Amino acid sequence: MFDWDDLRIFLAVARTESLSGAGRGLKLDAATVGRRIARLEERLSAKLFMKSPQGYALSEAGDRLLPHAEAAEQAFAGAEEELSGTAGQLTGQLRIGAPDGCANYLLPQVCARICDANPGLEIQIVALPRVVNLSKREADMAIAVSRPTAGRLTVQKISDYHLHLAAHSDYLAKASPVRDKADLRAHRMIGYIPDMIFDKELDYFAETEAQVVGLASNSASVQMHMIQAGAGIGIVHDFAIPFAPGVVRVLPETVRLTRAFWLIRHVDDRRSERLTRLAEALGQGLRNEVARLETLAVAETWSQP
């Protein structure tokens, strides 16, 4: 017979791939976590983890146990919601993973409004230069710039968004004219570090005739700061332009990119009314905020003298 507490420890080790990492989350020392895993393995007569220099990886038996342990986790969470009278209410702590641009320019104000409407709610925003791993419970839900094709996930499109070339007006006033894409060759371009682009949807420069990225970062917000400092021209989210005084769109009719945000949840979380309500509020809030900020960005467009 399974002990939920043992399964809880099993899930923590599976997600962190470390006894010490699991212990930190569970507020237990690593030795205690190790003993509990050993006890569970003895009870099941199966080795659940393979130890390597990289950490604790699930064995074949551990892989088979994982979905059952996650189902038990969801069942306990659902029971707790029902018995506490919080089913469907937006309370407690929730963690959202998101790419840099969304995390910096959209989620702060969207999540603030959701928290204002739900005083018992605490939201954590995890901004990572990669896709958040929901299987390891790095977050309760995630926003991505491309639709995942593998994993036990549910995926919902939130909204399209747009990107344009942009530069600071002071830079454009003293730089070579930019009348078409060919003129970009005379300018320093700002963009992503090529070998650190974690999603093909972030590889923007095929859309231009620029040859070299002279200044680069794996962070969209750092790129925007470079542009605002007058360092060159880059491709930026329209929704970020209102946060950067002096930055204007360049060649908006010539270079215009469309991308999409996707809301990703673990498939087992469909049973949580609370998470479903948060997903609905988050999706609607992001759609409204993208539309509002993109409308403001249209006014910030450079007119070549």
UniProtKB/TrEMBL annotation:
Source superkingdom: Bacteria
GO MF annotation terms: DNA-binding transcription factor activity; sequence-specific DNA binding
BP terms from Gene Ontology: DNA-templated transcription
Record carries keyword Transcription regulation: yes
Keywords annotated in UniProt: DNA-binding, Transcription, Transcription regulation
Pfam families assigned to the protein according to its UniProt record, in alphabetical order: HTH_1, LysR_substrate
Domain HTH lysR-type: residue ranges: 2-59
Family: Belongs to the LysR transcriptional regulatory family.
Protein name, UniProt field: LysR family transcriptional regulator
